[in-house]
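WP5 quarterly update. Target: Sec-independent protein translocase protein TatB. Source organism: Paenacidovorax monticola. Length: 157 aa.
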Amino acid sequence: MIDIGLSKMALIGAVALIVIGPEKLPKVARTVGTLLGKAQRYVADVKAEVNRSMELDELKKMKDQVEGAARDVEQSIQTQASEFEKDWAQATGTASEASLSSTDFGAGVVPAYKHPGKNWRLKRGATPQWYKARAGVRTKALSGAARVARYRPQKFH
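C-alpha cells (predicted):
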C-alpha cells in the first residue's frame, strides 16, 4: 500500500510541528488518528457487507439446487409409484384398485386417530376409585405451583 519508513515519518512530524505549532499538534494528531480509525472501520464494514451479500447469493443458489433436486426426486417417486400401482393391478387382476388415485388411499380406509385416553403421570391399578377416595390416595397430578400453594404453611395473624 503506502511505504512509509521511519525517516519519512520523522520528516512528516517535523513539517507538522513547524506548520501547526507545538500547542495544537497533539490535538490535531488525536483528531487525525480518530478519523483514520473511523475510516478503517467503515472499510471493514463495507467488506463484511459485500462478503455477506456474496454468501447470501451462494446460499440462494444452493437452495434453488436443493429444491430442484427435491422436485426431481418427488417426480421420480410419483412415476415409480404409478408404475407400481399399474403392475400391482395387473398382478392382482383388479382394475378398480388401479383407478384409485394415490391421494385417496382407498377413500376412507385409513382410520381416524383416536386418543388412547391415558394419563401417563398417574399410576393405574386395580384398586377401586371409592377405596382411593376413602384412603386419601392422590388420583390427579398437581403442577409445581399448585403443590406449593396447597402445602404452603398458613400464616397466623
